[in-house]
Amino acid sequence: MQAIPFPEEPERILLILPTWVGDVVMSTPFIRALFERFPQAEITLLMNRHLYSLLEGSPWVSHCEFWPPRNRTAAAKQQHRELLSRLRAKEFDLAVMLPNSLRSAWLAFRAGARRRVGFNRDGRGLLLTDRVAVPNRLNREYQPMPLCDYYAVLAAALGMDHPGDGLQLFLTEEDDTAVEQRLRAEGVKAEQPLVVLCPGANFGASKCWAPERFAAVADRLVTEYSAAVVISPGPGEEPLAEAIRDHMAQASVLLTEPCLSLGELKSLIADADLLLGNDTGPRHFGRAFDTPRVTVFGPTEQKWTDTSHGSETIVKVEVPCGPCHKKVCPLEEQVCMTRVTVDRVVEACRAELAAVL
């Protein structure tokens, strides 16, 4: 597409980030490219507050704003008014929206950004000054498209080359030290192969492989490799992680009191010899740090998250009802998950570990 003309280079830019952990990680090539495209501009990132530690350590977080809670309490309304006041005071020349939401376009409009760039979808076209055609819509349906390529269409509209799909995250010394101390306190030895299990999925229960199967795989990795198995769930996923520990015959480390922060989870995964989990946010941490990965796929379409990062084995089965993208399977048996066997996942883990051990 033809790039949007800028008679004058924007000096103040608002970049609205996605709200899902994995989507933010997959937006990092775009973020990096935007800073390179407008090196003299002051770029403010707007994100959910808990995602800050995801980008902490990067050169991109000098100017950040955070969404208020999504509720109708007086406190949340006051925080929203204060956010709008701060954004208006910055007098943005340009606002770029990575999310497709009406909410993001409405905020950019109310903040008074002079140019507002985003995909023309979900009824928000009138709020944009520069509407970018949706590249993957066909007959009112959205066709699977790698998210990095999707964001690259916005990049082209801003006169940027394709940012590529090299995901990038940064570590902090504080998080590295906290994780190292915690693992040593749990008895993990430096010479042991480190296998990290991230068994949850905020998307919904349909993405989660059975805890007893994760446990069976983990037991075999301990037996065969003397591996240290560390189970690291996100908040709310503690029961699932505890079920894996309870089903294991071998010892494991359960990080739930408290759960790791996103920053600490980055440090853990960056140091791991293998990351085993579902199609969920931490998988993309492994990509950013080139950690070998085995990922169990169920109801979701793999193409949405495709990148050229190596060192990953996808374990999935083709089923007539999938990929359905339903958060809860409506069938009596969720065959896309139950047909993924322990033996297949163990073989995938062996293949990934063979390259690093």
Short structural summary:
By secondary structure, this protein is an alpha/beta fold. It has helices at residues 21-26, 28-37, 52-55, 74-90, 102-110, 147-157, 173-185, 211-225, 238-247, 262-271, 281-288, 335-338, 342-354; strands at 12-16, 42-47, 64-66, 94-97, 115-119, 130-132, 137-138, 141-142, 194-198, 228-231, 253-254, 274-278, 293-296, 312-315.
Low-confidence regions: none
Structural class: alpha/beta
Q: Approximately what portion of the residues adopt beta-strand conformation? A: 15-25%
Helix and strand sequence: EHHEHEHEHEEEEHHEHEHEHEHEEHH
- Cα radius of gyration in angstroms: 21 Å
Full CATH superfamily name of the largest domain: Glycogen Phosphorylase B
CATH architecture of the largest domain: 3-Layer(aba) Sandwich
The side-by-side strand order for the widest beta sheet comes to: 3-2-1-4-5-6
Number of strands: 14
Look up the CATH topology of the largest domain. Rossmann fold
According to CATH, what is the class of the largest domain? Alpha Beta
Share of residues in helices: 25-40%
Measured distance between first and last alpha carbons: 47 Å
How many separate helices? Answer: 13
Domain unit count: 2
Shape: globular
Mean pLDDT: 94
**Major β-sheet annotation:** 6 strands, parallel
